[in-house]
Amino acid sequence: MEKISKDIKSQPQKIFDYYSGKLDPEEGKKIEEQLSEEDAALLASVKRLLYLDKQMNELSEIDTRKAYKKVASRIHANRRSRIFEIFGRVAAVIVLPLIGLTGILGYMQIKDTFADTAYVEVNAAPGTISKYQLPDKSYVWLNSGSWLRYPTRFNTKSRNVEIRGEAYFEVESDKDHPFYVNTPGGLSVRVTGTKFNVSAYDDERTIEVVLEEGRVNVENAAGNINMALRPGECFYYDRQDKNTYVKSIETYEKTAWKEGKVVFRNASLDKIFKFLSRRYNVDINFVNKKNTEYNYRATFTGEDIFQILDYLSMTAPIKWEVATPTQNCDTTLSRKRINIYLE
């Protein structure tokens, strides 16, 4: 087994050429004879990535050759199955309306920070939702413009991940290895197995934790926050004044985004337009904002932003228009902007 691992490790380029169809049959047969069952499973996952790369070469931010070489160079007898998890557990991506093919795979990086610890960083591109499976078989959905960092292998004591933005988690139950979600605001959510949502965007003043099932504890490093939530509750933390409070809510309003739905429950226009701006990757500008006392309760499934704005305009005195895009210094066009006129 050790001899096979050394042989594989010594020739990553040749294995890459094998899966790219560049080797003659005789050389290919030699490669196959050196592969253990675990090696073959790992490299089969790489082959699938190469196929996706061929079909979606527009996605220049994902360099599968580089990712492959990093994996191939780390194959040895006691870590092969763990490395497979880097690729085999990356799940499909849900693409929102009006978003092109460039959002399908999001953005993934594999970073080595220590000899025995590698981290994966994934991003949900603006206007997309991404779904991933973690090394412990837990699932996480990333909302538009969000970032997640996790190790390729959790340690023996706990399971730690970091997020910026918004993420929904379905955590595999393991009481001996608690799961921690760490946010930029210094808050951590500790769970053993449950379903919950965390919203911690950099441009939002409030961090929110919503519990759907199970039990979670919200904590901070200073030790002055330690609050247990029950299903149906939302924890709010104000990053400026450091205040916290818990409120019972309809959790579906906070979690339906992972299903591609837009749900408002007694939501103000300010809140709605901020949500739509992030969701559809557009700038929404109040041109003559006079008042925003209108509140809405609605559920949208599959509608684009223009259809939603048309609906809003039926029940409130608003008009909207799409502004002409401007050209940036690098010749690219500015992000789509919608002007809202509130009368």
UniProtKB/TrEMBL annotation:
Under Pfam families, the record lists: FecR (PF04773), FecR_C (PF16344)
Please report the stretch or stretches of sequence annotated as the Protein FecR C-terminal domain. 262-322
Pinpoint the FecR protein domain residues. Answer: 122-216
By its UniProt entry, which Gene3D superfamilies does this protein fall under?
A: 2.60.120.1440, 3.55.50.30
Taxonomy, superkingdom? Bacteria
The record lists the membrane-crossing segments as 86-108
According to UniProt, the name of this protein is Iron dicitrate transport regulator FecR
Q: Does the keyword Transmembrane apply?
A: yes
What is the scientific name of the source organism?
Coprobacter fastidiosus
Show the GO MF annotations: sigma factor antagonist activity
